[in-house]
Amino acid sequence: MLQAIGLSKVFSEPARSLRDIFNKEARRFYALRDVSVQIGEEEVLGIVGESGCGKSTLARTVARIYTPDKGRIIFMGKDITHLNNRELFDARRRMQIIFQNPYSSLNPRRRVSDIIGDPLRLHGLYEESAISEALRAVGLDETYAKRYPHQLSGGERQRVAIARALALRPSLMIADEITSSLDVSTQMRILELLKRIKNEYRLSMMFISHDLAVVNYMSDRVAVMYAGEIVEEGPSHEIINNPLHPYTQALIESVPDPRKGWRPRVKEVEGDHVSPGCRFAPRCPYAFEKCYAMRPTLTQYNNSRKVACFLHQ
Ligand SMILES: Nc1ncnc2c1ncn2[C@@H]1O[C@H](COP(=O)(O)OP(=O)(O)OP(=O)(O)O)[C@@H](O)[C@H]1O
Ligand SMILES: [Mg+2]
Fold first, then answer.
1. Which residue's CA is minimally distant from atom 9 of ligand 1?
2. Ligand of minimum distance to the alpha carbon of 229
3. In this predicted model, what pLDDT tens digit does every residue of 174-232 receive, in sequence order?
4. How far is the CA of 50 from the centre of ligand 2 (A)?
5. Which of 42, 163, 189, 299 is close enough to 138 for a disulfide, judged by CB 3.0 to 4.6 Å?
6. The CATH fold of domain 2-312
């Protein structure tokens, strides 16, 4: 369904001093560095990692909201890396992104029926029954069609966002932190809804969250991101039961346990954009000399798993 090969995306950090303004090169950093992912038909790939590691940048690059600085994106057998907006028209319908914040992703001045209907009209797929069908699929009755976004709860808004995406009959759904603004029980209901829809509509999915437990629940495979790179990848249950990368281990250990009182084990260190070594080394409890001198690449560990760490190479 989707193959991203060696994607890199470079941004410039905002200047913090007058000298910075003229030193553009020094402010450049990789939001994505050489990231490759594959999603099979009806497969859910989970992407997990802490805030700022590049998850949304990956989603936006794969969906060609951004153009990658390096690498290729193959979607349904077609290279979409350098297509222009007109050429992307069809791919955009088949690959739907749902964003984190349901308050900003729905036009406040449009009724739900138009929020769902507008993209259908654009693609020449509009039928009156499509609106109520999409609403029903996400567990909302027809009376919601007349409402405006401010008349919906956060969970209902996210349902409308899912309905809008679903109505377009996509093949791949990208869900970027879609439950992080919701309370725990609403989050659970949305996740269950998404799972059901995924099976019913036989979708492929990229499911993004900073919460490893949530990603594990939703995904067949998981890719763990750290500072713009994938550091570990494999089947969800194997990653959870036997994490190889020290960062993944820290992620699992830092899942809050109310009995223990939560304290993250690895301490925060300012990221160093120019270090030639492993990006995680400054925070890694096992780092040795080589880790500061060379960058480990994502390497096949066994049949199903990959890891970027010298401890395993
Ligand atoms: N359009 C942009 N221009 C410049 N820098 C950007 C841009 N978008 C993202 N960044 C930077 O790239 C890095 C990765 O951001 P990204 O939004 O992909 O992280 P994330 O993993 O989605 O984080 P979160 O979990 O908080 O959503 C951050 O340092 C961010 O500041
Ligand atoms: Mg994000």
1. 57
2. 1
3. 999 999 888 899 999 999 999 999 999 999 999 999 999 999 999 999 999 999 999 99
4. 9
5. 163
6. Rossmann fold (3.40.50)
